[in-house]
Amino acid sequence: MTRIEVDLDLCQGHAMCQVEAPEIFEVPKHGKVQLRRETVDNDDLADIKNAVRYCPAQALAIIGDQRGLRSVQ
């Protein structure tokens, strides 16, 4: 299983993560990212990697998965 880490001090509420993976991330209007689930299956990994990659504030990280991945940015 993969775990997502969010740095709320960095999050600026751009909601790019929600665009890339709406089943995982939610950003309320004028708010910061909220996780719908903290751990995710490998089926969601491609969308989550895109959310991490396109976060303008670099507030997201992927912590571990079955292939030994430590973080993606």
Question: Summarize this, please?
Answer:
Helix content is 21%, strand content 21%. The chain has 73 residues and is of the alpha+beta class.
Annotation keywords:
73 residues, alpha+beta, Alpha-Beta Plaits, single chain, two-stranded antiparallel ribbon
Task: Report on the architecture of this protein.
By secondary structure, this protein is α+β, with helices and mostly antiparallel strands. The chain has one domain (2-63): Alpha-Beta Plaits, CATH 3.30.70.20. Helices cover 21% and strands 21% of the residues. The protein has helices spanning 16-20, 45-54; strands spanning 2-6, 25-26, 34-35, 39-40, 60-63. The strands form two sheets. Strands 4-1-5 form a three-stranded antiparallel sheet, covered by helices on one side. A two-stranded antiparallel sheet has the order 2-3. Strand 2 and strand 3 form a beta hairpin. It is globular and about 30 Å long. Mean pLDDT is 87; it is low at 68-73.
